[in-house]
Amino acid sequence: MPAIDSYRSKPYKYISWIIEHKGNGSLTSYLRKKMWGFDVFCGICDKDNGFGYNSMYVLFEIIVELTDEGLKHLRNVLDTIFSFIIFVKKTGPQESIYNELYKIGKNNFR
After folding, report:
1. What is the four-CA torsion angle of 34, 27, 21, 60, rounded to 10 degrees?
2. Residue 110 lies in a domain
3. What is the CATH number of the domain that holds 41?
4. What rounded mean pLDDT belongs to the chain?
5. In total, how many domains does the chain have?
6. What are phi and psi of 54, to 5 degrees?
7. Buried b or exposed e, range 77-104, using 16+ CB within 10 angstroms
8. Position 61 in a domain
9. pTM of the complete model beyond 0.85
């Protein structure tokens, strides 16, 4: 994910929040309904070596805990993940999500 113009705003946190969300209409809820996955985790891929991000790029990983059924439908799971990412991209940034993350950040700073 290109980060040159916005690395200080940490857009990966916004994207992580959306992908990891557990509510209705979320990627996790869809995978659970299909009985393909238990949970979804994501974020920057940095194994304490400083290689995961800098001002030029961010390596982003998505981890899905699959069920046995999910393993049988791996292609469908991957299609679902990429379709969800395309949907998020088309929808664009949502002010309500930004505001929630801002409040969480302020509370964590206290």
Report:
1. 130
2. no
3. 3.30.830.10
4. 83
5. 1
6. -160, -160
7. beebbeebeeebeeeeeeeeeeeeeeee
8. yes
9. no
